[in-house]
Amino acid sequence: MNTTALQQPTKRQRTEALQASVQSAQYLTFMLAGETFAVGILAVKEIIEYRGLTEVPMMPVHVRGVINLRGAVVPVMDLLMRFGRAPSPVGKRTCIVILEIESEQERQVIGVVVDAVNEVLDIGASEIEPPPAFGARIRSDFIEGMGKVRDKFVILLDVNQMLSVGEAAQMTRQAESASSGPETSGRALTGE
Asked: Where is this region: Disordered (predicted)?
């Protein structure tokens, strides 16, 4: 009787596999003005369909408004405007990526408007180049690195830098106080 035993991976193979898994990370890729960007998947809480936003006075110009996400007031930022460009047009595939950012003691939830979500990619550490020192269309401190994917570059965004917790907390406080103020009392914050 001829049986083939399953070969167990060697210690070296297990070590190499572990190192490869540690050295790669998953990123959610999305489109903005024809360019591909990505954020670390661990920061992504969910992706929702774009729907009307409630505008809030006195917010930074790059904040489009707020949505009601299961009872929580969530500010929604237009990333293109954050990068100093014209606002993102709303299309059929436009959606809001809900991100959770954190610092030492604070955790904030914020939405970002993107033209379309593409896919989740594994990008190895060896496939990530440092951010360019010049020539980028966005501030270099917003860029975590440049991921090489299928012979093209994907701009890996530094979510914590781009959406600083202090700034996000201030936006949330402003939005919450405006949504409970006299101008909006009696109106539900429906996001429409």
From this structure: 172-192
